[in-house]
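Retro notes, item 3 of 5
We never archived the inputs for the SN-glycerol-3-phosphate complex last cycle. Fixing that now. Sequence and ligand:
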Amino acid sequence: MKTWPYPAVVAHRGGGKLAPENTLEAIDVGARFGHKMIEFDAKLSADNVVFLLHDDNVDRTSNGHGAAKSMSYAQLSSLDAGSWFGQEFADARMPTLTQVHARCDALGMMANIEIKPCPGREKETGTLVAREAWSGALLSSFSYEALEAARDEAPTINRGMLYEHVPDDWRAQTAALSCVSLHADHRDLNERLVKEIKGAGLRILAYTVNEPERAQLLAQWGVDAICTDRIDIIGADFFA
Ligand code: G3P
Ligand code: MG
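Structure as it came back at the time:
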């Protein structure tokens, strides 16, 4: 089994549903609830700055409009990425990965950096995210191409292949990418599959688990970590 220095609970998008996702403020909220690890989504601006955003466009989580891939970071960082969630977060911005790294270091927070490329930018996103990632971080992606580029750029940083539906060839894919872990939608997992994945020497991170009973069941099956929006009811010491 691969070395796995990560806690069993990971706060989704920084602060789950309690803060505007993928912002420094969300990381602070995750820390305030006692969490030791966060997940967030990283992509490239038009001028190749690695920054945090989940969607391909900025509309849902900011006061701007349009595709992130055609905006410079100067444009992106001028947008309000907090008011959509609550007026008290009006100062929140889409942070750079560099800023996020500094905040994680300051808070002693571990990170699962999900490489979430804008369409057509898979390879360069994998490369540039991995170049800025730090030892101790866990890289993951739904994009095989992005994770492959990350492996080539920073082979010593841990990787986990991320699946909405675990494909039949998960063994070959995770082996080719020398993954330490397989990350899956928890609804796609069952006891037998968990056993097979663990039997292959991989760790498992399940997302997005918001029901405590489900979290307990997954842990009972052998899932190593869950990523949750309910950072209030599934605390850092939930499995302690
Ligand atoms: O990395 C786990 C999870 O964040 C994947 O789904 O859409 O929330 O990025 P999504
Ligand atoms: Mg994500």
